Amino acid sequence: MQKAGLSLACGARAWRSVRKASSGMARQDPLANKVALVTASTDGIGFAIARRLARDGAHVVVSSRKQHNVDRAVAALQGEGLSVTGTVCHVGKAEDRERLVATAVNLHGGIDILISNAAVNPFFGNLMDITEEMWDKILDINVKATALMTKAVVPEMEKRGYRQGGSVVIVASIGAYFPFPGLGPYNVSKTALLGLTKNLARELDQRNIRVNCLAPGLIKTSFSKVLWMDKAREESIKKVMQIRRMGKPDDCAGIVSFLCSEDASYITGETVVVGGGTPSRL
Amino acid sequence: MQKAGLSLACGARAWRSVRKASSGMARQDPLANKVALVTASTDGIGFAIARRLARDGAHVVVSSRKQHNVDRAVAALQGEGLSVTGTVCHVGKAEDRERLVATAVNLHGGIDILISNAAVNPFFGNLMDITEEMWDKILDINVKATALMTKAVVPEMEKRGYRQGGSVVIVASIGAYFPFPGLGPYNVSKTALLGLTKNLARELDQRNIRVNCLAPGLIKTSFSKVLWMDKAREESIKKVMQIRRMGKPDDCAGIVSFLCSEDASYITGETVVVGGGTPSRL
Amino acid sequence: MQKAGLSLACGARAWRSVRKASSGMARQDPLANKVALVTASTDGIGFAIARRLARDGAHVVVSSRKQHNVDRAVAALQGEGLSVTGTVCHVGKAEDRERLVATAVNLHGGIDILISNAAVNPFFGNLMDITEEMWDKILDINVKATALMTKAVVPEMEKRGYRQGGSVVIVASIGAYFPFPGLGPYNVSKTALLGLTKNLARELDQRNIRVNCLAPGLIKTSFSKVLWMDKAREESIKKVMQIRRMGKPDDCAGIVSFLCSEDASYITGETVVVGGGTPSRL
Amino acid sequence: MQKAGLSLACGARAWRSVRKASSGMARQDPLANKVALVTASTDGIGFAIARRLARDGAHVVVSSRKQHNVDRAVAALQGEGLSVTGTVCHVGKAEDRERLVATAVNLHGGIDILISNAAVNPFFGNLMDITEEMWDKILDINVKATALMTKAVVPEMEKRGYRQGGSVVIVASIGAYFPFPGLGPYNVSKTALLGLTKNLARELDQRNIRVNCLAPGLIKTSFSKVLWMDKAREESIKKVMQIRRMGKPDDCAGIVSFLCSEDASYITGETVVVGGGTPSRL
Predict the structure, then answer these.
(1) Which residue of A268, C265, D65, D160 is surrounded by the most CB atoms within 10 Å?
(2) Quick one: CATH architecture of A2-218+249-274?
(3) DSSP B5-65
(4) What is the residue-averaged pLDDT of chain D?
(5) In whole angstroms, what is the distance from residue D279 CA to residue A274 CA?
(6) Rounded distance, CA B134 to CA B122, Å?
(7) Which chain C residues have any C-beta within 8 angstroms of a chain B C-beta?
């Protein structure tokens, strides 16, 4: 299974070193030689982030629950000349989390960056209708697995040493601040991530591992489709959210790469909203 | 078990009606004739809230996991001439939640108020040391059970009719905003409750059920003992929290009664911090 | 002028003592014997607060910029048997602030409570059209005068001694968190008050003077008329604010009285939103 | 005066075009050909931002109140081969604001970016001791002038056309959220800027002008010296702020450049805290 989960990464380092040779500045490859894990990254926001990290110089390991999605994403990104490999990972399973970590370590010798994007597809419906099983699933994957994925990665970041440090970015949602209508448990799980970010940041500060959070607004992905699946609903949610346009996955990628870069070395414990002007907090 | 879980409430209505006869104003008994459930209310903050609601005129059903604690609390409060009964309730168990609801309905004909205070005792330790089982326990009781307890109560509130409405107060913690050091999962679960409050408030608004939240600061209870168990730790946490004194359970009771009263009829979805000046949010 | 600014208060103490005699509990008159100044209190939210404080037992001094408004408010409240006097006060003028303080001290021997509600009528228009003079006026009255009014009152609160302490409530607005459309400078001045509350609370903590803040949502007053002056605009703003109904001034009064009472003695530096469920902050 | 206020910019475009020729990617010069005004930029955080914007490809106009500071900053930055000119500007004076705008327009044909960093040096002392004049000064410069500077620049941004848009970054402070002890009016003025950011963002959204805000934590500058002037005070403030190290001006520069870049095109109305893990908001 582990073998099957791995897509070929032959030549990844070579590709980057060619590109890097033509550049003299750190800024041009702000993540050069960094190794990044991105969960739930074969589509949507996660995929856009993975591509951006790789474009900015990182060796990226993508993952999601299905092998064919991993294969497709890896093929697409390798096709762009990026240093990307992948493995299947269901973040709710301890052995999958461990295999993801092992994959990166075996291939690249360590881990510097974790982007924790995995979340169950939100159920559309009232909180009063949500069953105990739905709550379990959503808290397990969106909250607990995020914490445990970080826990699995931190020892590898520590091995890099204090100076090099590490960077974690957790993907929450504007729904953490303002409930998306009809997505109660999803919203609540995302609010929890704001707190998880703060707590992890505080605890990992002394190891020079920074932990930040991205709160995307209404981004057009298959994941958020429940909110914009027909034109009427899209217009309605845009009005509620007071935005002119829905965001694109790429709108979320730059800030994540930035937060992982040296430029953000004094930023930790913070959440950045990428919402196109939708009401957020002061 | 259900029978055993019930303490005698004989005469509770009679007691109140005597007190009420001497008073002409609604303000003197702001919760007169309201029926209130309070979870985890045989000690500490929950107990102080239960007593206050009863003093303000409500019929209160206290509960916690152990029969002898329920008995002691009921005896103490009945001894003060208050309309208080009790039943054992482990909020993580569906049958216990249902029995608690049934107790109130059988005894008092319905439910107007839910104070959701139940939480597992916080584990002291690093997030990096927390096991999957600890996460399960804390998210189950602090978050999921709070949602499900509300779900169990809402149908009874609806039966009261739109005009009468209902009121839920969820007990979170200042740790929701600012991590108590060493209490990561507890803090995260409390952050989730801020979101749960918002989401429930929005969904239940059209039924005239208000949902608010209390975020106590550092309150001196057996529950928070891990933070002030010796003098050195108490002084240290007071300095971190920038407070002159620790709070008392009673410091939390007045605001909860207020939030359940007619005076708060335009307040819903809000969290009030009772923190003695500890840094909180704008 | 000072004389003219004073309305007759003859008998105020007598009236209260009669009412109090029939009551044995502190809760029935939570502000008994307290002396309260309320600025901008001859109409709307300020008037509702003044009435409530007086009903809860306080001696209240109302004020606003025009003598005939003061006279009318005092007459109305005295007509209800409340201990209320009044004086003209333009909070932007140092001599007016001093006279207001002197009035309360001369009449009642000190000051325990300040409700700072004064604000200029908001200009409707774009930030890009606001002149320097408009900014001056709005920052002067809404921010600076609030700080200076507090400064004028604090020495009188200190004279009461540490044990008795004092309580300040500043009236901000939900516009502090989420811009009311078209009311930019007003919104900004109210955001500043959230910070002023925090700063005053911290500084005055050691004198046992608590400082809290009220952030009303969309309340139906002549002041907010610009937002609901015709039916279409009212419906539009209600949709933007996601509320079922506009609030009434009385919806704001109970919480202010509560914040000034002994029950709130562990609450300082906090803002409470009274918004009927309109989006606010976590 | 205008002439005197201008430092020579000869060759600025030429320098950049040489550097740009060797680069094929937008990311290497994310602000290529943008024109940026930075107020209070001859020292500290403003200077670090100006340098970074220029390094990222922008033509930058620096400014502050004193000619010799402008000259020194321009000389230093031109010495690094950057496209930087400067002019004296006291942001509290309308004619100075207009001259600053005119300088950029005359030299570079328009304005794309405004970094509003000007603020009066904070007074150290209690709020209860602050005079009316001190309040005037601090609100005038920190709040009103920020709004008016933006107002002066927006017409030039609009001339660029909707597609090109514009970007404003306002420099607030962590003191906006959590009072720096002893710096009350400063803190309050910075809280106001959080609201100003929101209001400007909303109003300018339809013109495709984004407005964001930077809230630096404890950064080691001459400006913040009052907080760390001796070792004991530095250690004390670090403990209060729960940080391991004070920040450097450069720690603030990257995020500002990022917020002005195409990568941040879906980010508006947001404040980013650069605080090294100091408690901030969820």
Answers:
(1) A268
(2) 3-Layer(aba) Sandwich (3.40)
(3) HPPP-TTHHHHHHHHHHT---GGGSTTTT-EEEESS-SSHHHHHHHHHHHHTT-EEEEEES
(4) 91
(5) 21
(6) 10
(7) 23, 25, 27-28, 55-56, 177, 194-195, 198, 201-202, 205-206, 217, 242, 244, 247-248, 251-255, 258, 261, 263-277, 280-282
* pLDDT one-digit tens code per residue, D191-225: 999 999 999 999 999 999 999 999 999 999 998 88
β-sheet with B166-171: strand ranges across: B84-88, B59-64, B35-38, B113-116, B166-171, B209-216, B271-274
Nearest CA in chain C to D150: C128
Cβ-proximal residues to C231 (8 Å cutoff; 6+ apart), any chain: none
Q: Which of A195, A185, A170 is nearest to A272 (CA)?
A: A170
C177 in active site: no
DSSP H/E element including A193: helix A184-204
Sign of the Cα torsion B118, B120, B122, B126 reads: negative
Nearest CA in chain B to A189: B192
Q: Are C19 and C81 within 8 A, CB to CB?
A: yes
Residue among B18, B173, B266 with most chain C CBs within 10 A, to mutate: B266
Residue of B nearest to A152 (CA): B128
**What is the length of chain C?**
282
Strands (DSSP E) found in D65-140: 84-88, 113-116
Domain ranges for chain B: 2-274
What's the CATH code, domain B2-274? 3.40.50.720
Burial class (CB in 10 A: 0-12, 13-18, 19+), D258: buried
Could you tell me if C186 and B273 are in contact, meaning their C-beta atoms sit under 8 angstroms apart? Answer: no
Chain B residues closer than 8 Å to A178 by CB: 198
pLDDT of residue B27: 63
Work out the percent of chain A whose per-residue pLDDT is above 90: 85
pLDDT higher than threshold 60 for residue D157: yes
Specify the residue for token string 């009903």. C55
| Sign for the pseudo-dihedral over CA of C10, C15, C21, C26 | negative
Residue C208's Cα: distance from chain center in Å? 20
Q: What residues in chain B have their Cβ under 8 A from chain D's Cβ atoms?
A: 177-178, 191, 194, 239-240, 242, 279, 281-282
CB contact under 8 A, A272 and D274: no
Residue C19 above 60 pLDDT?
Answer: no
For residue B219, the cross-strand partners are: B247
